[in-house]
Design brief:
- 13% of the residues lie in helices and 50% in strands.
- Strands 1, 2, 3, 4, 5, 6, 7, 8, 9 and 10 form a ten-stranded mixed beta sheet that branches.
- It has one helix at residues 2-20; strands at 24-31, 39-47, 54-60, 64-75, 78-83, 87-89, 94-97, 103-109, 118-125, 130-138.
């Protein structure tokens, strides 16, 4: 009986670990903001290793009053941004937030984004899971340096 209980407990723990890994993030960085700027931008690559789509329903950071994901679109030669809510990462897919495409806007910055610092971003999923991402601030993408 005790053995069965321990096996069930281990199985439940393994299941919780799998759920916690429903979204991974890499290549995160935020661009240095100009002096006095109230808006910043962050980039990253999101990966969903699971078998079902993952929805990011909200994004927050203590560095800014509001955080949104925007997509850059070309509307008859005019570049425009539109907000994406929710942000969906398909099963088994990567979604890149990068310059010139989808990107994270940090609006109402409490202070400028300076090189060598970091901001923490919370991604809240539709499941209620929160994924914390530490985002280094750099003038250019650190992966390309």
């Amino acid at each position: 009986m005790l053995l069965k209980f321990c096996q069930c407990l281990l199985l439940a723990s393994a299941s919780a670990l799998c759920q916690a890994a429903s979204l991974t993030v890499d290549s995160a960085w935020a661009r240095v903001s100009p002096p006095g700027a109230k808006v910043g931008v962050a980039y990253m690559t999101l990966f969903n290793p699971g078998a079902v789509a993952v929805e990011i329903t909200s994004i927050e950071t203590p560095a800014a009053a509001n955080t949104q994901v925007h997509d850059t679109i070309n509307d008859n030669g005019m570049l425009k941004m539109r907000q994406i809510v929710p942000l969906v990462v398909a099963a088994g897919e990567r979604l890149s937030l990068e310059p010139g495409g989808k990107h994270m806007m940090l609006m109402g910055l409490h202070q400028g984004l300076t090189a060598g610092t970091e901001v923490v971003v919370s991604l809240t999923l539709a499941t209620g899971e929160v994924v914390l991402v530490t985002v280094p601030v750099s003038q250019t993408n650190p992966a390309e340096q």
